[in-house]
Write a structure and sequence with these properties.
Layout lengths: L2 H4 L2 E2 L5 E5 L2 E6 L2 E6 L4 E6 L2 E6 L6 H20 L2 E8 L4 E5 L2 E5 L6 E4 L4 E6 L3 E6 L2 H14 L9 E4 L13
Antiparallel strand pairs: 1-6, 2-3, 3-4, 5-6, 7-12, 7-13, 8-9, 9-10, 11-12
Length: 177
């Protein structure tokens, strides 16, 4: 039995949920999102709760039960509160700024790195070394943060580069004389 799959999801009063033809549509204050449902999991809506049960005839329904519940819960959280990730830039001369629909990064290359901000994502810079990525789709927010970090991942000797705010960089000792 899935511990996560058994827990029902409470639907806030500001959120509208519709289930039809193997798809779920969630509307809330921060927009609307939809997702295709997995065949092996049955969703029942009673008043302001969603509950999930696996269909016993389908082989991998128990494996997909908890995942389906988590994905639907992420939709509901996304349209009510949204998701955000914070990045930190460390290094002399490294900085970030938002210009229109682009994030301009100075990361020690001979040129600036221009990152086009995708639809549904908002990026804000606090100072020159802090980047906050926010949006209603958890997967998209994480993907954008990973793409920005990949331009210059933190290196282990001085810690220069782009890292997540809560990430810990294991430092290596430099050369010995």
């Amino acid at each position: 039995m899935s511990r996560i799959g058994k827990i029902p999801i409470d639907i806030p009063s500001s959120v509208d949920v519709k289930i039809d033809n193997g798809e779920i549509l969630v509307k809330g204050p921060k927009g609307s999102m939809n997702m295709a449902l997995v065949e092996g999991v049955e969703i029942t809506q009673k008043e302001s709760q969603l509950s999930f049960t696996p269909i016993k005839e389908i082989k991998n329904s128990k494996a997909l039960w908890g995942m389906q519940r988590t994905l639907v819960n992420n939709l509901i959280i996304g349209v009510t509160d949204g998701f955000s990730k914070q990045l930190e830039i460390n290094g002399v001369g490294y900085r970030a700024q938002v210009k229109g629909k682009e994030l301009v990064l100075n990361l020690g290359f001979s040129h600036d790195v221009n990152y086009k901000i995708p639809d549904g994502i908002s990026i804000a810079t606090e100072g020159q070394n802090q980047i906050t990525i926010s949006g209603s789709d958890k997967q998209k927010v994480g993907q954008v943060a990973a793409e920005i970090r990949a331009f210059r991942p933190p290196e282990p000797y001085k810690g220069k580069g782009v890292k997540y705010k809560d990430e810990f960089i294991v430092r290596k000792e430099g050369k010995k004389k």
